[in-house]
Amino acid sequence: MSGTLYGIGLGPGDPELMTLKAHRLISTANVVAYPAPDSGESFARSIAASALPSGVREIPIVVPMRTDRFPAREIYDGAAKEIAAVLETGQDVVTLCEGDPFFYGSFMYLFERLSDRFPIEIVPGVTSLTACAAQLRRPLTSRNDVMTVIPGPLPDTQIRQKIDQAQAVAIMKVGRHLARLKALLAEMGLIDKAGYVERASLPEQKVHRLIDLDAETAPYFSMILIYKGEEAWTLPPSYSS
Amino acid sequence: MSGTLYGIGLGPGDPELMTLKAHRLISTANVVAYPAPDSGESFARSIAASALPSGVREIPIVVPMRTDRFPAREIYDGAAKEIAAVLETGQDVVTLCEGDPFFYGSFMYLFERLSDRFPIEIVPGVTSLTACAAQLRRPLTSRNDVMTVIPGPLPDTQIRQKIDQAQAVAIMKVGRHLARLKALLAEMGLIDKAGYVERASLPEQKVHRLIDLDAETAPYFSMILIYKGEEAWTLPPSYSS
User: Fold this and answer.
1) Which of A176, B50, B139, B219 is deepest in the core (most CB within 10 A)?
2) Are B10 and B107 within one domain?
């Protein structure tokens, strides 16, 4: 019998925002896999680090860090092959995924290569979406709101149209699109209703009204949330420093 | 000094999908509050039950269970008053919230009444959105997909328009709108791309292709996920019984 491939959501970054189930599966794992940059630490591994058992076999999936580029086919072909070889011996492989494995996650590249051949279990995680809303201290959606999640790399015309048609809007993957998105939201009269969060739930997190943000670019793990149809919105005093 | 009001996301139902932080705060709480129906058990309390310390003071917020009706002002006025009285003594109040407190959650009714007067901390939770995607074994969003979340009670014309403009679609609060939504999705040629999940992650969960579902109505905690732009979609064999 072959092993099971687990896709484990780790949440937005604070290790305490892992689920009990994620923690249990990681701390009893024999083999873990995770995305890693070509230099520096793997973010996914760093979230799970305190739960990793000693002696666990680690399979880093090294993906060059280039914003807005989807990973090369060959990298995931190779990783899938290495993981399949472990699964075929009957051992499980626990894949560490930032946020949730199925919400804009790179786990899908393993999933599409392996789900026909091996048992898969997905453990959902806290997404950056609600982690950012928590930090901005505003309900994300209520009652019969329509919510739309928009990737920042899309062109202005598309983003404008999607924003027009929702009550609650999240723009993900802000990164190098920050200046353009700020200009667009200013033009749409929404800049004073937008909040900005980077690295939500981590010690180095930043929480700002978008209008107060000076930077021209942002890290990949950053988000803009727009609260339409409300009075001009202010952050609670603890954040306004 | 006054106490802190915590809004704690409990995740979709499986107690193991609580975060470590939720578990810590609940198991050390002196006072908890939670929504409860006028008869029967509170869903939120049932998720947290195994973590509740003995002797904890409980403040049930009794909300009559009527689908698609937003809770009466007086119920939350009363609950906020009772909770404020505890916070004023310097004690914290831990509010138990199904899913995530700020994602279509009733916690907002307490938040809007108390956030000006007391310190608030929100602990995000796993939403039903990604819990359902995990059960349907399909990535919810990938690459630069636009995702839209639509409440089922909205009229057909609105739902049709929102679906047309997104790559990934979730319809929440399906409930008594199931038959209407099925007819609409059939008309739009999307019925064979829609998955249905009720009570995700609980022992009594149901996972179906929407096209295979016979029922005319669904429980409140049910969701339809639509995977557009894909080949006709099938559930993995373990679910097709």
Assistant:
1) B139
2) yes
Query: What's the rounded Cα separation, in Å, for the pair A133 and A116?
Result: 36
Judge if A132 and A56 occupy the same domain.
no
Three-state SS for B121?
strand
Three-state DSSP at A25 gives helix
Q: Which of chain B's residues have a Cβ under 8 Å away from the Cβ of A23?
A: 20
**Triad B162, B167, B173: Cα angle to 5°:** 50
Instruction: Locate A40 and state its tokens.
Output: 């520096």
Of A123, A140, A161, at which residue does a domain stop?
Answer: A123
Using one digit for the tens of pLDDT, what is the confidence trace for A18-67?
999 999 999 999 999 999 998 899 999 999 999 999 999 999 999 876 64
Name the residue among A115, A134, A142 with its Cβ closest to that of B104: A142
Say how many C-beta atoms besides its own lie within 10 A of residue A241's C-beta.
Answer: 5
Cβ B134–A127 below 8 Å, yes or no?
Answer: no
A202 in the same domain as A162:
yes
Query: What confidence tens digit (pLDDT) does each residue in A178-222 have?
Result: 999 999 999 999 998 999 999 999 999 999 999 999 888 899 889
User: Residue B59: what are its φ and ψ, rounded to 5°?
Assistant: -115, 90
Q: How far is CA B189 from the centre of its chain?
A: 28
User: What is the spatial distance between Cα A104 and Cα A71, in angstroms, rounded to a whole number?
Assistant: 13
Regarding whether A106 and A21 lie in a shared domain, the answer is: yes
Do residues A12 and A107 both lie within one domain?
yes
**Token pair belonging to A166:** 């929702």
User: By CB neighbour count within 10 A (0-12 exposed, 13-18 middle, 19+ buried), where does B228 fall?
Assistant: middle
Based on the fold, state whether residues A94 and A134 are members of the same structural domain: no
Using a CB-CB distance cutoff of 8 angstroms, which residues of chain A are in contact with residue B102? Answer: 130, 133-134, 138-141
Domain count, chain B: 2
* CA count, 13 A, side-chain hemisphere, B7: 31
The domain boundary, picked from A74, A92, A123, lies at A123
Sort out which chain A residues have CB atoms less than 8 A from B163's CB and list them: none
Domain that holds residue B106: 5-123
CATH number of residue A209's parent domain: 3.30.950.10
- Give the ipTM of the model, two decimals please: 0.94
